[in-house]
Amino acid sequence: xxxxxxxxxxxxxxxxxxxxxxxxxxxxxxxxxxxxxxxxxxxxxxxxxxxxxxxxxxxxxxxxxxxxxxxxxxxxxxxxxxxxxxxxxxxxxxxxxxxxxxxxxxxxxxxxxxxxxxxxxxxxxxxxxxxxxxxxxxxxxxxxxxxxxxxxxxxxxxxxxxxxxxxxxxxxxxxxxxxxxxxxxxxxxxxxxxxxxxxxxxxxxxxxxxxxxxxxxxxxxxxxxxxxxxxxxxxxxxxxxxxxxxxxxxxxxxxxxxxxxxxxxxxxxxxxxxxxxxxxxxxxxxx
Length: 287
Hints:
This protein is α+β, with helices and mostly antiparallel strands. It is 24% helix and 21% strand. The protein contains six helices and eleven strands.
């Protein structure tokens, strides 16, 4: 599923194409796509000028004329494309713009969501209204992360997947950051030292920055708005590499499940007892 680097890549491609354009026709074929306010009203509300395109966590945030916000979450397999796909079997919606261009929304598994809301309608937004700090902004710090960890009886990997703790981080980059920091993903979050939280925070920032520069990670479904693949999969150190040799020490990478999510780590480079083998994270779906 697209995580922060993938969504950021899509937003950077959409911003110059959409800013100042007007939606002249909105057509939604999938009744499961629109979460608020209903398909008919949603299609009417979107017929206006686009002021800006940004990101919050894993959400695409399109600010429109007269304070309307068009909010999009791609979930597992959603794609927002600036060209009509050759294969239209999973085409769920189309948005025509005043310059003759358009946006096509494709979603094989139909998990994606869209909202069209005004100020005061925030109750419809679910997890979006309670997102934590962005990992590359000043509000996210070792002190903040440790404060969240000491009060939770939860594995550190599961803590990182909680979108109230850090917005936009998912399964891929949590595994990668924990490896870079040398922290076992199953350790209880409250047991980590201050130095470990400092190392982990730095690792998260470094991994996310590098992944954004690589335009995200593509295994199967993720594509940029231009339909291209990301390249960070070529640089993954542990994610999806269970049983392969560790790039640092040569030991076989191990796997376990935490909070229902597959997790890969190096038992040698990430020592420590797995004090918590399960944990519940309030996550919007992982990578």
